[in-house]
Design brief:
about 800 residues, alpha/beta, globular
Amino acid sequence: MAITDQQPADTRHVLVHMVGAADLGTRSGRPFAEKCAELAAADPAQATRLLTTSADPKRPAPLMAVFADGAPRYDRVVLVVTRKQAGMAPDEDFTRPVGMAMKARLESEGLYGVRFDPGAVELLEVSAPHSSKVRAAIRDWLISIYAGRTLPQVDIQFTSGATNAGIGLVAGALEAGVAPRLVLLTGTTGRRITLREELPADKENAQRWLIRNRFYSPMIKGDPDNDKLWRSRLDRQILAAETTDRDGEDGTATGMLEGDLARVLLERIGRYEAVDGFLFRAWLKTRTRGLADRDRTGGPGTDLDGKLDDVIRRRFPDRATRNRQETLERKEIETLRAARTAKGLSTSALDFLLHPRLPAAEKAAKDLAHGNRDDPEDPRIIGRFLETQKYLPRHDEEIVEIGYPRWPYLGDRRVLILIALGKGRGEDSQKSGLDDLIRQARRYDIVPMIRIIVSAETERIGRLWEEKACAQSVDCRVLLTCGIDFSDLEAIRCDVWDALTVDDRELDIIGKIWVVTGPGPKPQGLGLLLTGMEWGLSAACPTQLVEIRQAAAGSNEPIVEVDRDAVLNRVAGEAELAGVALSALDCLDVSAAAAALDQGWARSLRPLAVRVRRLSLVPALRDGVRGRKEPTAGAAAGIDPEWLMSIGMSDQENSPLLLLRARLRLVQTIAKNDPWGCAVRAAALCEGTLGKYGDDGWYTLCDRKSPRCIPQATQLAGYRNDSPVAHGRERADRTGTVPEPPSAEELCDCLRGLRAGLSRHVTVNGRGLPDTWDTVLVDELELLKAEIRAFTVST
């Protein structure tokens, strides 16, 4: 065999190959172990023979086909191998010795008809051929090797090696910002397909993602035909219209109709900002009063309507009621409900207040509004409660009318699970993967919608899954029967897409897609991967990997692992995502900015999301698994100790207090464009950081009668109370006028004086709050904006 030296003109062309049993012309398990022993004892000629012998007489060894005539020249070859694990029984399929033998020959006398310079062939070791481990390894390698440089063209040999590992290589390359080519072995050569050409362009579905996630500002320019619609949604969402004179039937004193207020709440509640807690409270009061208006009889001779008014007055007390310390017990509501029922009177307002999920939802909203950091209620409880209110709109009808799916306001807990089934080793193993898959779905509190593709050989297994899933009240269907060769790939993709399109369960509004790897043939798995990514782009939802593998070699026990860190589909281009993030940061909508950046690639926008979250004023959301909590940021950046050290803050235990001045300075940046939001956030920040009571409590500092009173604290509390999302309505009811927001100059003076007052009255380790870090968050914000803005220009 002639040997060709690999001296490419393009020095950025990389081949990635997962070393496996096929590289020794055998299958995994004991045959592979025996071949490895033979390779270890072989001389160079024997080793070459072992490494070039194919298990299939009709096909060459995998890399023989990859390097066949007409193949591109590669600058570098990465051989991904598995290694023994310390403290564990040796895995007889670990492949590092095979990779070492391949590397030695490729860099010396040559192998597969090619020869490379020393160092051009690299071993990338992973602990196991699992998709999550391989994904992380190749992603980190690509990012570290090509940091700051033009990314290479990456070819991934996809036909041989573990299926899960192959999918992991694809996912890892995508995360690193590379659109790889897949080398599919057909006959004696390798067919190369480029993922970029198999999926829609970045911008093609960007507007769908923006709309589904309620990011309306970019749509005003991006869709001029419907700019009035997007402007109305944006104005409503940021409460720009809340003080307009639109009082009337079903209206609020802030100028917002109950329906508009409800839609603002539905659109925003997933952001988990302080203002959203106040919005929930405002909607709760408005809804209760509206129901009470309908419950009143208007007839003479009954005092039950008066008692209803009194209950509502004490349930949502104004300042005078609070000053009189009038309280309301749940028992009183129950008693009045029973009395009205006995008289045949309507009780809808009382039923609403007695809803079993309301107390937890109200507690979560209060925690958001007041910045509770100690033990905050999970804010998703609010959404669960809102789902019980059947009168609320499920989606935006006007957006549906212009051609978009009926994307629900509160999201969709359903997950589309795509899986190709293999033969298995007996009936029990054929069905047991289903049980574990359903358990994982329920663990993450989602509703599984399982769709299966099968071959002629595995259709019976698919029907078994349908029957067993039905017994567990799970929607599971065999989608279609299709081929199992790479030549069938295009047909698999088209047929699966068509089947999903005609499915009767509105799969274009599902909340997430899981592509399951492991069980089925590779061509089917690849077809589902590509279709799942494309479907996720169209549905504007994330596509994630789920791996099913054996617990151990030869075992029938499955392990199901959800790789939650792998987001496969790029829902918008970097420029669009960066633009959304900038718009959000301009109004300190930190959660929206981070959500947009999280959709970017691991080497570009996504790391910026971590930095953006340092600016958050609310506790971090708990992990998706019930009972597990992530560290909470609260009002400080305590979850990022390295960053705190980088700014010279060694006393991390007191970081919430030490950063309070800096956070107030950060909130001040929106004083001009969003004065009410500035006042509400600043007050909530102080209350959440200082607590309500005690010598340094927020209420103490606001109390004019207290010797520790800070006049600007009292002033800020007044601004907050006058805001439409706090007590502005009550003032409007009393005076007949809508409160005017403070000017930017008034707010800035107030916050400047407040910071000075805090340094006089609040101490850390015996010293007043320092001004050392006053500008650190504002500087970080400006730096982030500059870095994010670069993506809007360069991409």
